[in-house]
């Protein structure tokens, strides 16, 4: 498992991380985004979706839980998932996310709600808010991501 960290000075730098992720993301991939409310999880997802071709701003999936994006609005199917409102892992089965991985990528906010061991091959990103308001991004890249993300 490869780990690393990056300082993000402002919201544009946070979106730029998402744009960079779009260069290496493909169907079957999972990226998890952890951090407190307002840290920038959705900003990373928005940058990624914009780089995949989405015109306009992607809404936060907080209320929908799963926001699907399909071609031609993006290059390949992507599900932007926000698990914040889930009570626990049992609620996850109803969403059908594992089946979606056959042809879509998943961007999952609040992955802790999925339980221990969910998506073991995911690129795990965590955002912390620094005392000065900047963001600190840390990651864990399993073998499937080690050559693609550093």
Automatic annotation (TrEMBL):
One of its GO terms (cellular component) is cytoplasm. InterPro entries: P-loop_NTPase (IPR027417), T6A_TsaE (IPR003442). GO terms for molecular function: ATP binding; metal ion binding. Keywords: ATP-binding, Cytoplasm, Magnesium, Metal-binding, Nucleotide-binding, tRNA processing. Coiled coil: none annotated. The keyword S-adenosyl-L-methionine does not apply. GO terms for biological process: tRNA threonylcarbamoyladenosine modification. It is found in: Cytoplasm. Belongs to the TsaE family. This is tRNA threonylcarbamoyladenosine biosynthesis protein TsaE. It comes from Sphingomonas mucosissima.
